[in-house]
Write a structure and sequence with these properties.
By secondary structure, this protein is mainly beta. 0% of the residues lie in helices and 48% in strands. Strands 2, 4, 5, 6, 9, 10 and 11 form a 7-stranded mixed sheet that branches. It has a 4-stranded antiparallel sheet with strand order 1-3-8-7, with no helix packed on it. Strand 9 and strand 10 form a beta hairpin. The chain starts with a strand and ends with a strand.
Length: 118
């Protein structure tokens, strides 16, 4: 059974930074596509950032240039560095795993709350 456990969320002022972490259990972590989605109150869940097994990255236009996704295959970890945070970034952030870019997400984490407010 695969488990994804997020951490690092919290309350931050506009313009601040946070780093989210996702610890993944299971073997052969390095072959999977990993990503972050978010869901704000009253809105649909949306893709934030994705990183493939080769390190190719994709970002939502709303976060490009401010957020950076990375992975450490030796530690089975995925990270999301979030800079220049805005109130509209407030959401629950979910780590997820896919077999490849053509497949749907097969595992989700429980989510971590990010609140951007003064």
């Amino acid at each position: 059974q695969v488990q994804l456990v997020e951490s690092g969320g919290g309350l931050v002022q506009p313009g601040g930074s946070l780093r989210l972490s996702c610890a993944a259990s299971g073997n052969i972590f390095s072959i999977y596509v990993m990503g972050w989605y978010r869901q704000a109150p009253g809105k649909q869940r949306e893709m934030v950032a994705t990183i493939t097994n080769t390190g190719y990255t994709m970002y939502a236009s709303s976060v490009k240039g401010r957020f950076t996704i990375s992975r450490d295959n030796a530690k089975n970890m995925v990270y999301l560095q979030m800079n220049s945070l805005k109130p509209e970034d407030t959401a629950v952030y979910y780590c997820n795993r896919r077999q490849n870019l053509q497949e749907v997400v097969d595992y989700w984490g429980q989510g971590t709350q990010v609140t951007v407010s003064s």
